[in-house]
Amino acid sequence: MRTTPADARTTEDVIDLLRAQHGRIRDLFDQVMNTEGEERTAAFRELVRLLAVHETAEEEIVHPMARRLPGGDGIVDDRLAEEREAKELLSELDGMDTEDPRFLKSIDKLRVDVLTHARAEERYEFDRLKDQFSPAQLKGFAAAVRAAEATAPTHPHPGTESATKNMLAGPMVAMVDRVRDMIRDARDKG
Ligand SMILES: [Fe+2]
Ligand SMILES: [Fe+2]
C-alpha cells in the first residue's frame, strides 16, 4: 500500500491520538515539575493548552459514545466529575506564579488526579470504544482534533515569551470554544 506522510495523518484514529496525548500530558507534567523559571512557565502554558484541547475533544467525542456502553452513564459521570475538579484546580494554578511554592504542591496534586483520570478513561472507555465508531469517524475525528490543536496559540521558545505571559486566560477560552465548534462540525457530518 502506498503511504505518504499526509496519508499517515489521515489514517490515524482518534482513540490512538487521544491515548498519545495522555503520554504528552504526562511528559509535560514532568517538564513543569523538573524545570524552573521561564522554562517552567512555557511548559505549563503548553500543558494548559493541550489539556484544553484534549478534554474538550473527550467531552464532545468520547464521553457521549461511552454513554451507550453497558453501565456507560456511571462511567461517564465519574469521568466528568474528575474533569470538573481538574479544571477547577487548573484555573487556580493559572493565576499563580509558577515559582510560588504552593504552585508545585498544587501541580503535583493535579498531576496525580489527571493521570489517574487518564488511566480510568483508557480502561473503561478507550479500550471499549474502538468498535463503536466507524473507520470514517475514527479518521474524521482525529483530523478535527489535530486541526483544533493546530489553531491553539503556539508557544514561543523559553526565554522569548515574556510578552505573551498575560495572554493565557483570554485565548484559552476562545480556544476551547473553537475546539468545540470544529469537533461538533466533524461529529455532525460523520
Ligand atoms: Fe478526560
Ligand atoms: Fe483523557
TrEMBL record:
<feature type="domain" description="Hemerythrin-like">
    <location>
        <begin position="14"/>
        <end position="127"/>
    </location>
</feature>
<dbReference type="InterPro" id="IPR012312">
    <property type="entry name" value="Hemerythrin-like"/>
</dbReference>
<protein>
    <submittedName>
        <fullName>Hemerythrin domain-containing protein</fullName>
    </submittedName>
</protein>
<dbReference type="Pfam" id="PF01814">
    <property type="entry name" value="Hemerythrin"/>
</dbReference>
